[in-house]
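Lecture notes, part 5. Sequence design as translation. It can be helpful to think of inverse folding as translation between two languages: the language of shapes and the language of residues. The source text, in structure tokens, appears below.
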């Protein structure tokens, strides 16, 4: 036995695989690929990351569609847990971190240089991940926040035909809608088939709220003095917002069936050149909407983005919060330090570059100007590409804007930098709730939001009168405990700003 081992060792040394013996094992519970035919257990890039960190990962990978149902009971039982755990959610109510399963990572920042650097460079994330007790328990998986978010999109040939630039004020915008309604913009000889604006009702708050000084997307938002407001409870500005939309509705500029319009219908309208304006995730403007037009040449956008609309208040776009998932380390792990070092390596620049781009020559090449481009095989063989572990759903990977840019036509990237990125405003931050706060929120928030949504449709479509019923709407919000909810959100925002400092 001893002899066999020593022969193996000698052989291995000769082959240069000695590090495999030195590598310590770390067990990890995480999501498998969203592609059902891909198993990330042997993913090349993830193995490389583990090798670089000096560990061998013993994976327990679970189908992402059943992840929450499978993992939540395991965490509740808190027995025989692996060293590294991807949580089923971002633990907003501190359910898991309060249970003591997870190690407070900030107490190990002396051996987590990569993660400490990441948090110093990303104060918003640091603020969101700081628990009520001041500790940081998790490392994040993040998404792009300031690029390719929901934006205004115009039919550029229609604007050219009308001889105008994309409007930047509500007044000019309404003027443009009337022009689109009254003229044969698509040139088919019929001046009545144009639908000036096609917007899914969920995007109305994004599109028109900011001009009235409201972030209706977050619902709760903080002003420059750090005071928290609820947008649909701002009696003066919210009333003006509803009145504006009701006027559009009465004039036929917001269609009668506006609550049921969906993306497929808007796409169909683009295919028939029937509409002048929409609002959607930026991603759709080139790959979906512009692509519907037979004369689209990928050089110039047909449906293209523009700056937000301003009114009494300057326009902005609402971005999103960065943290999409979190990973923690089992506080009872017998390999605590190894697991910590592994997770720290996984948060470093070298590992992040591997998740986003893969490896030079394998997945990308670098041109003479130093720009990276994915190789054709990446799009031709999706299963192979995903199987490498790119954008790993089972690791703390950070989504990257440059790696998104290379998937889009140049005009679209330029459009994002010119008309979208400069106007992005961060939404209300994700902040952990104390048990008392979680209880207040779960008791009142859903009923409040349901009532607000129902009344918004009624006021906009005129089935409820803004003049006669708005005051009773405000007093109903009070009876639905809006003031209690504001206190909770204010306390959370104050903790967040303290953690960011
Ligand atoms: Ca027409």
């Amino acid at each position: 036995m001893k002899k066999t081992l020593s022969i193996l060792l000698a052989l291995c040394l000769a082959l240069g695989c000695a590090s495999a013996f030195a590598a310590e094992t770390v067990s990890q519970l995480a999501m498998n690929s969203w592609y059902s035919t891909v198993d990330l257990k042997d993913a090349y890039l993830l193995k490389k990351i583990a090798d670089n960190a000096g560990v061998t990962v013993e994976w327990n990978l679970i189908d992402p569609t059943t992840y929450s149902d499978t993992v939540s009971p395991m965490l509740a039982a808190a027995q025989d847990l692996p060293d590294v755990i991807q949580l089923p959610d971002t633990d907003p109510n501190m359910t898991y971190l309060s249970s003591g399963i997870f190690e407070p990572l900030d107490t190990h920042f002396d051996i987590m240089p990569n993660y400490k650097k990441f948090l110093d460079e990303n104060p918003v994330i640091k603020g969101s991940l700081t628990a009520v007790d001041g500790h940081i328990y998790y490392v994040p998986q993040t998404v792009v926040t300031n690029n390719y978010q929901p934006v205004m999109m115009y039919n550029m040939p229609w604007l050219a035909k009308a001889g105008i630039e994309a409007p930047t004020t509500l007044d000019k915008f309404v003027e443009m809608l009337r022009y689109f309604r009254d003229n044969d913009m698509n040139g088919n000889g019929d001046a009545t088939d144009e639908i000036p604006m096609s917007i899914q009702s969920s995007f109305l708050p994004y599109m028109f709220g900011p001009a009235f000084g409201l972030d209706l997307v977050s619902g709760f938002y903080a002003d420059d003095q750090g005071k928290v407001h609820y947008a649909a409870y701002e009696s003066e500005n919210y009333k003006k917002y509803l009145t504006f939309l009701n006027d559009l509705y009465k004039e036929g500029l917001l269609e009668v069936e506006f609550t049921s319009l969906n993306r497929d219908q808007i796409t169909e309208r683009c295919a028939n050149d029937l509409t002048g304006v929409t609002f959607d995730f930026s991603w759709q403007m080139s790959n979906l909407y512009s692509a519907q037009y037979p004369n689209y040449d990928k050089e110039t956008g047909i449906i293209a983005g523009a700056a937000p609309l301003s009114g009494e208040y300057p326009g902005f776009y609402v971005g999103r919060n960065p943290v999409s998932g979190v990973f923690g380390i089992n506080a009872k792990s017998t390999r605590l330090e190894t697991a910590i070092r592994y997770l720290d390596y996984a948060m470093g620049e070298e590992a992040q570059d591997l998740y986003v781009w893969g490896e030079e020559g394998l997945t990308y090449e670098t041109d003479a100007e130093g720009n990276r481009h994915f190789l054709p095989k990446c799009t031709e063989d999706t299963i192979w590409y995903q199987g490498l572990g790119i954008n790993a759903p089972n690791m703390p990977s950070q989504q990257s804007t440059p790696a998104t840019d290379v998937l889009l036509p140049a005009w679209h990237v330029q459009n994002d930098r010119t008309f979208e990125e400069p106007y992005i405003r961060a939404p209300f931050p994700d902040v952990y709730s104390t048990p008392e706060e979680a209880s207040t929120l779960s008791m009142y928030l859903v009923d409040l939001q349901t009532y607000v949504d129902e009344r918004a449709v009624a006021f906009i479509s005129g089935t409820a009168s803004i003049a006669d019923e708005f005051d009773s709407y405000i007093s109903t919000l009070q009876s639905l405990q809006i003031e209690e909810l504001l206190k909770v959100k204010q306390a959370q925002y104050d903790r967040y700003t303290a953690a960011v400092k």
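The translated text above is only one of many valid answers, since several sequences can fold into similar shapes. The chain has three domains: 14-144+323-399, 150-320, 435-500.
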